[in-house]
Each structure stands twice: as C-alpha cells, then as structure tokens.
Amino acid sequence: MFWIVFTLFVIDSVLVTVVILMQEPKQSGLGDALGGGGGGGGDFGTMGGTAGGLHRLTIWMGTIWGVLALALQVIPRA
Description:
This protein is an all-alpha fold. It is 67% helix and 0% strand. It has a domain at 1-20 and 49-78.
C-alpha cells in the first residue's frame, strides 16, 4: 500500500509542478496585492477562463499532494 501511495505522490508532485509552470505570471509583485499598484487590488478569486481553471486545478492538486504526504507518514512501509 505504501508504494502505491508513494507512486501517486511522485506523479502528483510532477503534475503540480507542470501546472504551476503553465500559469501566467501576474508581473505586478507584492505592491499591487497590497493596494499600492494602479490596478484594482481587490480582485482575488475573480479569474476567469483558462487562468481560473488552472488556479482551481492547482488548489485541488496541492490539496491531494498534502493528503498523500500525510498518508505516507501514517501507512507503514512494507
């Protein structure tokens, strides 16, 4: 069972890396997020289209990665 979870963990790790690299960078830095930039800083979670889908996919895959990481600590290695 350990090796099945470990294999899924490695696959998810690679896929999370690929999905993160596919996302388009904001290029605005921390100043815009804190309200210092000219663009509206209050648009968290309002991404639409492909960017919104990649964002949601990243959240789901990151959550799965965390659950698998915890499972690796609980499941005894055979």
